[in-house]
Structures are given as structure tokens and as C-alpha cells.
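Justification of resources, computational component.

The compute hours requested in this renewal are based largely on the per-chain cost of generating structure records like the one below. Each record pairs the submitted sequence with a full C-alpha cell output. That output is archived, and it is also reused by downstream analysis tasks.
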Amino acid sequence: MTDIFSKIDKIYNEAGHNHYGEGVSQIEHAVQCARLAVEEGERSDMVVAALLHDIGHLIGEVNSDHGNFSHDHAGAEFLSRYFPPGVTEPVRLHVSAKRYLCTTEAGYIDSLSEASRYSLEHQGGLMTEDEVTAFRAEPFYEQAIRLRRWDDEGKDETLASTPFNSFSRYVEDVCNV
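The structure output for this chain reads:
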């Protein structure tokens, strides 16, 4: 196991039991999202983005009920020391993707979990027309939208959890260090 995967594994083992308003823990959510990416045949960078997209909830200051409302930027900043933009940019943009989809896709906001709707209010709410245009100009906006959809789906309380370390090879594939 690489040093970075050991470091990340330790973060998830220490704080991944938290739920932040959802029915699954952060570690269960992470592995479900990564499994969805693997099932869709995604490249390693997107599998890692799916696995680690919420790491910002596990580092720094967090609200015990709702995590860190700016976890997207905190996570991307932390991950940028170890991973290329193919990992960090979808992570950085996944909250913006939620705002974008709520603004542009009829019925999307109604499909969100209660916790996701609550956090939306604290993450800027619906996008303005200028924000929609700016989001679409981001080089990784399409990847962020795919990540966002896995984020929405990866909250199934009935799924058995896949071991977190079963994704170590994907991390090793894309790690910069």
C-alpha cells in the first residue's frame, strides 16, 4: 500500500464512521460511489474522485450534524498534493454540479436527500445564469456531473460495504507521489 493510500485509509478509519445527516457513514458512502464508478467502466482518476470526493468532511472543521459545507474545496486542496486534476477537479466541482443540476434539470432538487437539500442552502443555492455559464466553461464540469450523480446514488443503507482498501490499486494508478 502506498504512503498516500495509508494516510487516506487512516483518515477514513478515524473519521469515516460519521454520517452527517445521511443514513450511511462517510466510508460507506465513499465506497458506494467508487463502486458505481467502477460499474460504469470509469478510468482510475474518476474512481478515485468518487472514492475521495467527500474527504473534506473528514479533515479540518466540521459541523457534527452536517459536516463541512465547503468540503469540496477543502478536499480538492488536500488531494491536490497527491493527485492530478482528473481527481481533484471533479472533487472541487461536485457541489457546484449539485447547484447546476438543481438549476437546470427539472425535478432534480426533489430527488435529493434531505441532508443534500439542507446543505444546498448553505452552499449557494440555485445558480444564476452567469454561474451556469461559468460552470459549463470548467474543463471538468462533465466529470463533476457524473460524480454528483454517484454522490446522489451512493447512499443505499441496504448495501453491504465494500472494504475501503479494495480501491487502493486505483489510488496507486493515479497518485502523483
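The chain has a mean pLDDT of 89. The CA atoms of residues 41 and 52 lie 18 Å apart.
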